[in-house]
UniProtKB/TrEMBL annotation:
Residues 13-134 form the SnoaL-like domain. This is Nuclear transport factor 2 family protein. It comes from the Bacteria. Pfam families: SnoaL_4. InterPro entries: NTF2-like_dom_sf, SnoaL-like. It comes from Streptomyces beijiangensis. The lineage of its organism: Bacteria, Bacillati, Actinomycetota, Actinomycetes, Kitasatosporales. Signal peptide: none annotated.
Amino acid sequence: MTHIKDLAARLDRVETELALHRLAYDYCIGADHRDRVRWEAVWTADAVWATSPDRIFSGIQAICGAVEQQWQAFPVMQHATANHTVDLGGPVTSGRSDVVVLVQLRDGRWIAGGGTYEDEYRREDGRWRIARRNVVRPFDLAPMAPSQGPPYDDEAI
């Protein structure tokens, strides 16, 4: 019986890690494709999103309002997360990932930035969600020259 319990625990760990990696992807996809339903689904109702020490959004409505302001400011956003690790061993399930962000300004110029996300996750109704995301070590690079390519059309994707 111990073998079956060990196997079940290992399977639960693998499924949890996969779900948390998918959560990180859904965060990026929701933001980049302006998918409010997907974006909202990654957060707990009482989540906290600290994009800097002086920009902290508490609760799902504030978090959704903040990303909608980003959508207004940036015609195109592209997030790429890497090095996503999760810690399932402590009292709080946590994770850490690095992010590179490219955003287009209204005048066509691009800004590259990024940083590290430090997360706390919570399972609600059988689904993992972000309970807290802190952006640490953020950086921005100077705007690049305007793009000469055609405007972005997310309907074509």
